Every structure is written in C-alpha cells, then in structure tokens.
UniProtKB/TrEMBL annotation:
InterPro entries: PCD_sf, Pterin_deHydtase
Annotated SUPFAM superfamilies: PCD-like
Protein name per UniProt: 4a-hydroxytetrahydrobiopterin dehydratase
Family from the record: Belongs to the pterin-4-alpha-carbinolamine dehydratase family.
Species of the source: Pseudomassariella vexata
Protein origin, superkingdom: Eukaryota
EC number, UniProt record: 4.2.1.96
Catalytic activity: (4aS,6R)-4a-hydroxy-L-erythro-5,6,7,8-tetrahydrobiopterin = (6R)-L-erythro-6,7-dihydrobiopterin + H2O
GO terms, molecular function: 4-alpha-hydroxytetrahydrobiopterin dehydratase activity
C-alpha cells in the first residue's frame, strides 16, 4: 500500500523539524527519491534491488556497519536480491535525524553496490516492497521493544 501524499512526517521529540523537513524532500518520492513515509508518518521505507543475492548481502553488510557506527538499526527484511528497509526511531517515537541520515547513506551505498533501478509509477507500490513491509512488521512485533532501556530487576 503506497503512502498517501497527505501523510505528514511525525518527528521524534527534540528533533530539528525544519532541518529534517528539508533533508526529507530529497528522499521522498520525487524525481530522485524513492523513499516513502510510513502510514503513521513516523518512518521512512523503501526496497532496494540488486542483480544477485551476493550484491544484496554486500549492501546489507555495508548498511549494518553504518548502523553500528550510528548506534541505530533499521527494521528490514531480505528475500534473494531485494532488501526492504524501514527507518524509524522507537524511543522517542518518530522520525529522527539518524533515520533521515541513514536513509541517505543507504541510497549512496545502493548506488555503490549497483542497485537495479526500476521505474516506479507514481502511487504504485511494488510487490517486493509490500512483501518486505509485511516481513519487517512481523519481525518487529516478535522482536519486542528494542530501544527502551531494560529495567534492572
């Protein structure tokens, strides 16, 4: 299901909304951007496709290294040569600077690893994106609350 153009970003607390809004413009569905806001407006998501599983895995490894450096992780799924990535912040909930910056890094890494770019018709949602979204949603529900410090017992 494609995100409505009426969906507005919902930023996490303490975010610089005006700066993030400017950065979002280059990422969201435009001539260059292929990211979409989640239905809630609290995240960015898109799929990346590569020629082979090996290229996809290389891309995911490079993204994971950036995650480690940023101490932030995506909700993601992978099937063969396609990786679905959703950036959102769980605590405090909403879009954060890290989400927007890591989405831009993903675009750059995808170019470096030879992303297969397919023309996306406006308002259309690819089947791989929907499948990736369902897989990421299921994993997120099963994974529990990853970003809230655990209470000592």
């Amino acid at each position: 299901m494609a995100t409505s153009s009426a969906t507005q970003p919902k930023f996490s607390a303490e975010s610089d909304e005006s700066a993030l809004t400017l950065k979002l413009q280059g990422l969201l569905a435009s001539a260059q951007g292929r990211w979409t806001l989640t239905n809630s407006g609290e995240g960015l998501e898109r799929s990346f496709k590569f020629k082979t599983f090996a290229k996809t895995w290389d891309f995911m490894t490079a993204v994971s290294l950036q995650c480690k450096l940023s101490n932030h992780h995506p909700e993601w799924s992978n099937v063969y040569n396609t990786t679905f990535i959703r950036w959102t912040t769980h605590n405090p909930k909403g879009l954060s600077t890290k989400d927007v910056e890591l989405a831009a890094i993903c675009d750059s890494l995808a170019r470096d690893f030879g992303e297969v770019v397919e023309e996306v018709k406006e308002g259309a949602d690819s089947g791989s994106c929907e499948m990736g979204r369902r897989l990421a949603d299921a994993a997120t529900r099963a994974g529990g609350d990853c970003c809230t410090p655990k209470k000592k017992q």
